[in-house]
Amino acid sequence: MSALLYIVAAFELAMIVTGLVLLWRVHSSPTARLYCISSPLDPWSAPVSHFLLFVGYVFLGTMIVAVVAQLIGRGLPLTGDALKIFNGAAGQFGMIAGVAAYHFGVERVRSCTNPATSGVLRSGVITFLISLPVLAAASYAWKVFLRLSGLPDEAQDLIRMFAQAESAWLVVGMTLLAVVVAPIAEELVFRAGLYRYFRTRMPRSIALVAPALFFAVLHVDWPTMDGIASVGPLVALAIVYSIAYERTGSIATTIVAHALFNLNTIVMILSGVGV
User: Fold this and answer.
1) CA torsion through residues 173, 178, 183, 189, sign
2) Which pLDDT score is estimated for 244?
3) Alpha helices in the chain (DSSP H)
4) In Å, what is the CA distance from 14 to each residue of 4, 11, 219, 273?
5) Closest Cα to residue 195, out of 180, 178, 212?
6) How far, in Å, CA of 258 to CA of 26, rounded?
7) What is the pTM of this model?
8) For site-directed labelling of 104, which of 11, 47, 166, 198 has its Cα 20 to 30 A away?
């Protein structure tokens, strides 16, 4: 093993231990349980018709940008993994375009511009650290379940693409997509959109799980079953993010946490530690 691999592995272990301590302090300790934390997150009081418009705008934005990307892609020298990344980026930008179209064209959803942004970096880092031990436990349990069920437990194809990328530009492009574009798109849709709408309209447990499950299954290529190994961990991760969003009232917190999580995953892959 190289020195870098040892350093990254030791740092990862230190972050998981730190996350366990933070999880105990903010959620499970006797002191944390004594206090009833009121959420600064205002309910989204939009009618059902507006929520359906939100979903429609996101879907339509994704489809339109994807079609445009297909047309542009025909004139570009892109093949294989580069073409997959190009199309994936189009989908993410389409989601952002759909949220923006709804936000400015139908209703200014305060969840996307919540002013409670003080300490966003700190709360984002704490959320990221807390998510690590939760994700580790969920990953182990999910892998055991998949093996007992006879289902594939290989990592997502995207992880393979990072590990085997031969072009530095491809790595840079995938990194920007994973660390900048994807966190913004997915947090605006799944946390600021779906979770915020559901949290006051159904039991909290269902409001937490339903968007998380939808978030996770969208990362799976169902015809090939590629990415099914990520479903359990991503559900756990999404639930942690929803709770953090509710507690802080700021979608920027989960965007930061999501970006740090993706960056941490990339560092582990490129260093050889694996995920």
Assistant:
1) positive
2) 94
3) 3-23, 30-34, 48-73, 80-105, 120-149, 157-164, 168-176, 182-186, 196-198, 204-217, 231-248, 251-271
4) 15, 5, 28, 14
5) 212
6) 19
7) 0.88
8) 198
